[in-house]
Design brief:
Number of domains of chain B: 2
Helix content of chain B: over 70%
Structural class of chain A: mainly alpha
Order of helices and strands of chain A: HHH
Radius of gyration of chain B: 22 Å
Oligomer: heterodimer
Number of helices of chain A: 3
Strand content of chain A: under 5%
Strand content of chain B: under 5%
Distance between the termini of chain B: 30 Å
Largest sheet of chain B: none
Mean pLDDT of chain B: 93
Largest sheet of chain A: none
């Protein structure tokens, strides 16, 4: 019976947490590279689209936080897609594959 | 029991005894190290927490936390894995179980004395090599050299034709660690100062991570994933590429820790390019392990050791993306000297390497004791405490670092930054405390496994019985 439960369902919470952290890590690099390079010259006014990069009256860190969140969601999708693919392979009886 | 075996004949000591002592020692040091981390984080989150006592000042306690985690938890878990995996892969016994036990005892006593001296204020003042030089020499010749001898001689006496990737890494990394400790502490032996001291300090710090912690953790994953899943390693050649690219690219970028220092510009540029090339071994490692898992991804959910290891391997992706690029000049300008770096260091030590080592200790202890885990539920609880605690810590510190970076560029008054950081400091303390509490549960679970774990029948492997718990 346990065999019938899809791997995606079984790994959902794990994939959400691990995928989010891994994605946010990659997003932190992309975001800061973009910010540090685009920000050159007129940096004080540039914090990315929508928010400043620093707001002394609040705790939200603007553009960088958005980039990290978007990358986090993207990596969850990548991880779940990969697990879905492996689940299909396993059910089709494709062994270790190498 | 330790005293009994220390003076016994080598043949009379049961195989795996050293792994047993190293494993339990590493768990205890992990609790001490993360407990100190939680205590220190509380001082940043709640400024009135334990004040006015010199020995509990943040400056003293932080050094003790870092060195307890690196030389207590991480390195001792490595030694446990080496004492178990090296002979297993060579189809032989450990060269000298007695030497390994003496190493374990020296390690525990030497490290305890070194940390107490550090706590009392005796320090070189150099990050990651904070111990005064007599303790550096004790660790090098009384602890690392005997462990290295055991690894090398066990490999030399192996009963297999080739040397598997994991043993290549073990033998090479412990040799490189000895060179790093010997050369990296030169400023203390010869009283070098100024830029030379700064450069050697960071050469030492960078290479303890790059030539010891990163490759040995990877080597453990090269063993546990094929062993537990039953799949052969996807590619030995990629494993060799990983090893040699670490030797070439990871040994040279020390100057990227000092991008704002008056070092020669060519040296900083060279170090920065080499730093990006760290992605070569990183991609080789991650792809090799994930491809080895083909057809066995269900174990990512169902097997506790595989889940720990794969989580560690996945965390290696952002670790190396950050590590490769955060030292380039434009990003370093922004995040140097901020909490981002603290988050990155914890991604390496508490994320990537710790998750892989925890799996090795779980697996090694069960195999040596020939007992199934006392409680899989407690092991799952430990996993989630570690993962959620680490995630809260890492995310809060990364964002706190970005606020500090912005504040640095905008020249915001320091006190405003301190106020803005406060909620993140509380989150950091909370995350770290979850890790500490999870580790206490882990020690209980392993202690109970030793006392009451179901005995694994002769001829069966622990992971074969994973679903029969």
């Amino acid at each position: 019976m346990a065999q019938q439960v899809s791997m995606v369902r079984k790994s959902l919470i794990l994939s959400l947490v691990v995928g989010m952290v891994v994605g946010m890590g990659n997003g932190s690099v992309f975001g800061i590279y973009l910010m540090a390079n685009l920000g050159r010259g007129n940096f004080a006014e540039w914090g990315g689209w929508g928010w400043q990069s620093y707001n002394p009256f609040g705790y939200f860190n603007g553009f960088m936080t958005w980039v990290m969140l978007v990358f986090g969601v993207a990596f969850i999708w990548i991880l779940l897609s990969a697990i879905y693919g492996h689940d299909k392979m396993s059910k089709a009886g494709v062994g270790s594959g190498h | 029991m330790l005293m009994k075996y220390l003076f016994a004949k080598n043949e009379d000591i049961p195989p795996g005894t050293a792994t047993l002592f190293f494993s339990f020692s590493s768990i205890v040091w992990f609790i001490i190290g993360t407990g100190l981390g939680s205590f220190n984080a509380a001082k940043l989150a709640f400024p009135d927490w334990v004040t006015g006592m010199e020995y509990f000042a943040f400056g003293k306690m932080r050094q003790v936390h870092v060195m307890a985690v690196i030389f207590g938890w991480i390195s001792m878990a490595f030694a446990a894995a080496m004492m178990y995996i090296t002979p297993a892969l060579g189809n032989t016994k450990l060269w000298s179980e007695k030497l390994a036990l003496w190493s374990c005892m020296n390690w525990n006593i030497g490290l305890a004395l070194a940390l107490i001296s550090l706590w009392m204020g005796m320090t070189s003042g150099r990050e990651y090599s904070d111990f005064i030089y007599p303790f550096d020499l004790i660790i090098l010749f009384g602890v690392i050299l005997p462990v290295a001898l055991n690894v090398w001689m066990t490999i030399a006496h192996r009963r297999t034709q080739g040397i598997y990737t994991t043993n290549w890494f073990f033998a090479g990394s412990i040799f490189m660690l000895m060179i790093v400790l010997l050369v990296g502490n030169l400023p203390e032996y010869f009283h070098l100062t100024g830029l030379t001291e700064a450069y050697l300090t960071w050469w030492n710090a960078h290479n303890i991570l790059g030539l010891w912690i990163t490759p040995v953790a990877a080597a453990i994953a090269y063993y546990t994933i094929p062993k537990i899943t039953g799949n052969p390693l996807y590619s030995h050649r990629i494993g060799h590429l990983h090893f040699w690219s670490i030797v070439i690219f990871y040994s040279t970028p020390a100057a990227h820790h000092l991008m704002s220092a008056p070092l020669p510009e060519w040296l900083k540029s060279f170090a920065s390019v080499e730093g990006v090339l760290i992605l070569v071994p990183a991609i080789a490692f991650v792809s090799n392990i994930l491809l080895t898992l083909q057809g066995k991804w269900n174990m990512f959910v169902e097997n506790i050791e595989v889940r720990f290891t794969v989580t560690g391997v996945l965390l290696a992706i952002p670790l190396n993306m950050q590590g490769g690029f955060q030292q380039t000049r434009s990003i370093n300008w922004y995040i140097h000297g901020t909490g981002w770096i603290v988050a990155h260091a914890h991604l390496a030590l508490l994320g990537f390497s710790t998750f892989i080592e925890v799996a090795a200790v779980y697996y090694g202890l069960q195999m040596i004791m020939k007992r199934k885990l006392y409680s899989l539920a407690l092991a799952n609880f430990h996993f989630w405490m570690l993962l959620i605690g680490f995630s809260i810590y890492w995310i809060s510190m990364t964002i706190a670092g970005l606020i500090q970076g912005a504040g640095k560029i905008y020249e915001v008054p320091y006190i405003d930054i301190v106020i803005a950081e406060h909620p993140y400091m509380i989150a950091r303390w909370f995350g770290g405390t979850l890790v500490f509490l999870g580790n206490c549960v882990w020690l209980y679970n392993m202690y109970m496994t030793a006392r009451e774990g179901t005995v694994v029948p002769q001829g069966r492997m622990v992971h074969e019985l994973a679903y029969e718990r």
